[in-house]
Amino acid sequence: MPTFRRPTILDVAREAGVSKSLVSLALRGDSGVSDSTRLRIAEAAATLGYRSNAVARALVQGRTSLIGAVATELTNPYHSEVIGGIERAADELGFDVLISHGRRDPTRITQRVERMLELNVDGIVVVSSWADPEVLRQASRHAPVVIVGRMPDQVSGVDTIVSDDRGGAAAAVEHLLEQGFESLTFVSSSQRPAAIARQEGFVQALAHHHAVRARVADVSADTVTSIGRLLDDAARPSAILANNDVTAVRVMDSALDRGLAIPHQLAIVGYDDTVLASLVRPTLTSVDQPNDDIGRIAMEMVEERLSGRVHDRHEIIAPSLVVRASSRLR
Amino acid sequence: MPTFRRPTILDVAREAGVSKSLVSLALRGDSGVSDSTRLRIAEAAATLGYRSNAVARALVQGRTSLIGAVATELTNPYHSEVIGGIERAADELGFDVLISHGRRDPTRITQRVERMLELNVDGIVVVSSWADPEVLRQASRHAPVVIVGRMPDQVSGVDTIVSDDRGGAAAAVEHLLEQGFESLTFVSSSQRPAAIARQEGFVQALAHHHAVRARVADVSADTVTSIGRLLDDAARPSAILANNDVTAVRVMDSALDRGLAIPHQLAIVGYDDTVLASLVRPTLTSVDQPNDDIGRIAMEMVEERLSGRVHDRHEIIAPSLVVRASSRLR
DNA sequence: CTGAAAGCGCTTACAG
DNA sequence: CTGAAAGCGCTTACAG
Questions:
Q1: Per DSSP, what are the bridge partners of residue A68?
Q2: Which DSSP state fits A323?
Q3: CB atoms closer than 10 angstroms to residue B246
Q4: What is the DSSP letter of B25?
Q5: ∠ Cα B104 B107 B113 (to 5°)
Q6: What whole-number distance in Å separates Cα of residue A111 and Cα of residue B97?
Q7: In whole angstroms, how far apart are CA A290 and each of A151, A239, A276, A316, B112?
Q8: Is B117 in Cβ contact with A51 (below 8 Å)?
Q9: Which of A96, A274, B102, B248 is deepest in the core (most CB within 10 A)?
Q10: What is the largest CA-CA distance in chain A?
């Protein structure tokens, strides 16, 4: 069958010998339909393979029960986990989640948001800090918009939810100090807001520890070479905090290639606590963010807006440190 | 604004002082509209923040230009990469991709497919082998359905595209034999069709090499202990092919914990060539599948169906081996 | 308990 | 070049 025509409520009505209104009522389980009619209609629908047309329903009802989730990068487990949280909360609240993929392209992310709006979704969660603020502001006039991530500037009318990146970095620093490390370097491979906040948390946490040497290394360009230079330096640090797990593992690889003992000659802490952290050897200490909770709260924020909340809400979620072999001396 | 009303074509018409038909024509760039009118309408639309309602348009046009992609597990980079391929092809062919997440739950995957159908998508790509065959068969009456993955049984009316798992496993075996390994074990953590096909490829490739000892180890239950037992065995294999990268890395971890030299005392080959393979030390040899191509072909298959193809198409894609340190002796 | 009518926001012939 | 009318597949009052 090359035509793919879908049966409509009218086909079912004809098949069952009733009016289309009655088909609609029966199929949606309205109580005022006789059992015999209901059965006849159900059979007709099954015979034809009838399936309600959500597009038509949405048009008349003025709502789709759809939530659009726009993510920068699906390959990043952090994003998929947040989306999992959104989905679980959506299930409970009676929404369906449609996911759209920005592929690290700001233009594309913006397009995805606009497309979601055209699809008439009841709310939008943007799991990204790359979207155009002006587009989000405009979008929020027509549907609740929640941003999961750290925007360069705050957008009025839009809710946000971020992880406490400064606090997470501070917790990592505290742990390293407790272990007795006295020369710490923050290694960053990104200039995105989250990485910057982590770096600031690192610097601040060490501001009053004058006995400790604190430095920052930018390895965003030419990562492997930059890391090599850092490790070959005579004044090599004794402990490193990286802005994410992948960067931490790259540091670990370079250290192992150089025969350095981890953590005794070099301690390493990552950020994000991805699956990587427990798979590499030695296992990697990392800052964990409650991604599922973050997604859930984002969905709840959308629901609150739909229920009438008018003031903006900005939530900050506390991360926690998971200590593993790469930084534990005893 | 707690109401989120979206302006309609009628609001724009009123604002511009024309009929709604004219607004529709002007906004879609019809040539038969005077420049002055077109400008007035565009300004009115901008003032109101008007955005076309795709739901209404889809209803009248009978097509949505939407492709539904249903994936088992977004956290799996293999799936996100396939989706990336679908998206790139969709961009070229003028479709938008809506992603839905099955979260490893067969019931949920089936629901996602049905929901996509209700949304009137023009085609469905199921990146999963967990969906209910009967539901897919029904779905294919109303929209083209392509399965990326290995279904237990073939579904008539549905196109499929799979990677040649037997061939990939055979290529890995051939490489290990060339390197001179003489005792090979296939380590599997799954009984899904793809894992079984890889195992069959392994067994077949060794069927005529009587001098080589070939075995299979199921580590799906109690993975770490099972792997430990395998490695502590006096008759430990000299090389291992795992059914995926994560399992391969677990084997690697256990081997390193036991002080085994990789690859000299134990060679390891993974499958899927995920980001993991180049991040672990030693780097992991792995069978790579052209995920982007797979996604692209899936999208093209949908388009072919929409253009009238009626016979089923079943495509098998050749994987390739990426040799790294974990299996290279010299 | 059932049917006829209006309308959701658009597009598409059809007039003028 | 512009407007009035019909209709996409539904739901929702309103009659009977």
A1: A98, A124
A2: -
A3: 19
A4: H
A5: 90
A6: 12
A7: 19, 25, 16, 11, 26
A8: yes
A9: B248
A10: 88
Kindly list the strands in the beta sheet with A213-218, ordered across the sheet, starting from the edge strand earlier in the chain.
Answer: A213-218, A183-188, A239-242, A267-271, A285-288, A320-322
The answer to whether the C-beta of A48 is closer than 7 A to strand D is no
Q: What angle do CA B156, B159, B160 make, to 5 degrees?
A: 110
Question: Which chain A residue is nearest to residue B140, measuring alpha carbons?
Answer: A4
**Euclidean distance between CA atoms B33 and B18, whole angstroms:** 12
| Nearest one of B155, B107, B111, B146 to B130, comparing CA atoms | B107
Other Cβ atoms closer than 10 A to A116 = 27
Q: Identify the burial level of A183 via C-beta atoms within 10 angstroms of its C-beta, where 0-12 means exposed, 13-18 middle and 19 or more buried.
A: middle
The protein footprint on chain D, as nucleotides within 7 A of a CB, is: 1-5, 7-13
Token pair for residue A262?
Answer: 């981890």
Predicted confidence (pLDDT) per residue in A98-114, tens digit: 999 999 999 999 999 99
Q: The tokens 């180890």 sit on which residue?
A: B217
Token reading at B16: 């511009």
- For A6-36, give the DSSP string: PP-HHHHHHHHTS-HHHHHHHHTT-SSS-HH
Chain mean pLDDT for chain A: 93
pLDDT tens per residue across span B265-319:
999 999 999 989 999 999 999 999 999 999 999 999 999 999 999 999 999 999 9
Nearest nucleotide by C1' position to the A62 CA atom: C8
The number of C-alpha atoms within 13 Å of B271 and in the hemisphere containing its C-beta is 31
Search chain A and give the residue with CA nearest B119. Answer: A54
Q: Which residue is nearest to nucleotide D5 (CA to C1')?
A: B21
Contacts with A23 (C-beta within 8 Å, 6 or more apart), sequence order: A9, A12, A13, A16, A41, A45
Q: Could you tell me where the beta strands, DSSP code E, fall in A149-204? A: 159-163, 183-188
pTM here? 0.91
Please answer yes or no on whether B279 and A55 come within 8 Å at the CB atom.
no
Q: How many residues would you count in chain B?
A: 330
Strand D proximal to B154 Cβ, under 7 A: no
Closest by Cα among B203, B70, B40, B173 to A98: B70
What pLDDT is recorded for position A3? 65
